[in-house]
Amino acid sequence: MADSTEIRLKLLLVSRRKEILDSLQSLLRRYPGLTLDRKLVVNGHTDPLHEVTDLPDVLVLHLGETWRAELEGLAGRSADRRPPLIVIGSTQDAAAMRLAMQAGARDLLPVPLVEADLIAALRRIDRDRQTANPDRKRTTTVFINAKGGCGGTFLACNAAHALASRFRKRVVLVDLDLQFGAIPVYFDLFPGRGLLQALQNVDELDETALEGYLARHQSGLSVLGQGAQDTLPLGGVSLDAVKKLMMLLEQSHDHILIDLPRHLNALACHVIERADHIALVVQQSVTVLRDAGRLTTCLRRDLAVSADRIATVVNRYDRRSAISAEDIRSTLGCGEPILVPNDYRNVEESITTGQPLMSHGRAAAVNKAIQGLAKQLDGDAFEERRGLLARAFSRVAKPKSP
Ligand SMILES: Nc1ncnc2c1ncn2[C@@H]1O[C@H](COP(=O)(O)OP(=O)(O)O)[C@@H](O)[C@H]1O
Ligand SMILES: [Mg+2]
Fold it and tell me: Would you call the peptide bond into 112 cis, given omega within 30 degrees of 0 as the criterion?
């Protein structure tokens, strides 16, 4: 595969010719970080962005016979309603070139299209977006369940997928269940190399070499979990190796999500101390809440985790349950918990088919709740919406003293 892994953009491909859209799409589909939408212009409106509400990161426009009206349509938009533009078409025509410039074209690519030129143009735009926002927030979030089966793994997988696909962030999901973790399976991925080999070879790794150990989902999400060549680590793993690996992952990702088994050993404590957020996943059950209470106390008192870093997530929430969200809040001494509804059918189908909820049960309430959770995890969203933050992770801001 071409060197494509770093480009993370959402593209809208627009043309009046279906075969052009087809060939662009099949070419670009090989670049997993790209999210593709297409629009076949049939007649009527000449503004290529007409009725496009969710603006893409880049508009790739193949110029048709009505190129003048198309470019004028774009040029007439205000700059904030006009994404960076790549124009594919004749570059001989001086008038077309001038209008394309006025419409904000970053590149004019002649036909027949050279793949490498298109990719280089996209890479430039992606790089500019990164450098325009050098202080973007990077976050590490640990998902930990209060008891096995609460849904920690399921929520970590789907929140990570939402961040990568909907919020178009560079996201890696790390499965720290070293013995029996199966996160790649949730995404229908079967990597050869995985986390344990990465840890063994960490001293030789840099950002590029690390890519060889990450399984890549079509959404662009990277998964670092068990690989087929990994063997059960009966003797545990080196904490130093974990520290080095975490540092490498932080360099090259906006978000690191970690699925952490509840066993609190040295590795788990290190990961928790390093994390910005801890999502504590519980259910409406007396025994779960008992364990959740012990875990919260341990996090707060022994690991000195401040209250605003812990979010309580009630999974499989049922408002008819004898245990209410308010009971959970007062029992754990946390703020208002985040509620994820119970949905046996969609969740089972999603897991069985290896398709995250966003692809499988998009309209389901459980998906919407997880999208909300992902939004709160997004560093930029935190910066932009302090009000939302106050209602979200800071909802958990006033636990009882341990
Ligand atoms: N919101 C939900 N609604 C219905 N079933 C769920 C939900 N979340 C998780 N499950 C079910 O619970 C099972 C256990 O979830 P899992 O993520 O493996 O738990 P954990 O990692 O906490 O042990 C999943 O296989 C799935 O069938
Ligand atoms: Mg699990």
Answer: yes
Q: Which residues of the chain have pLDDT under 50?
A: 1-5, 380-402
Superfamily covering domain 139-396: P-loop containing nucleotide triphosphate hydrolases (3.40.50.300)
**Fold agreement between 9-132 and 139-396:** yes
CA distance 362 to 270: 35
**284 SS3 class:** coil
CA of 260 to the centre of ligand 2 (A): 7
Distance from residue 271's CA to the centre of ligand 1 (Å): 23
Cα(140)–Cα(124) distance, rounded to whole angstroms? 27
pLDDT in the model for residue 166 = 81
H or E stretch including 175? strand 171-175
Report the alpha-carbon distance of residue 259 to residue 186 in Å, rounded. Answer: 13
What is the DSSP code string of 65-129? TTHHHHHHHHHTS-GGG---EEEES----HHHHHHHHHTTEEEEEPSSPPHHHHHHHHHHHHHHH
Q: Where are the domains of the chain?
A: 9-132, 139-396
Residue 342 Cα to ligand 1 midpoint, Å, equals 9
Domain 9-132 class?
alpha beta
* Ligand 1 pocket by Cβ (under 6 Å): 145, 148-154, 281, 315-316, 340, 342-344, 347-348, 351, 366
Give residue-wise pLDDT tens across range 102-154. 888 998 998 899 999 999 999 888 877 766 665 656 789 999 999 999 999 99
Question: Model pTM?
Answer: 0.70
CA 375 to CA 371: how far, in whole Å?
6
CA dist., res. 173 & res. 222, Å (int): 6
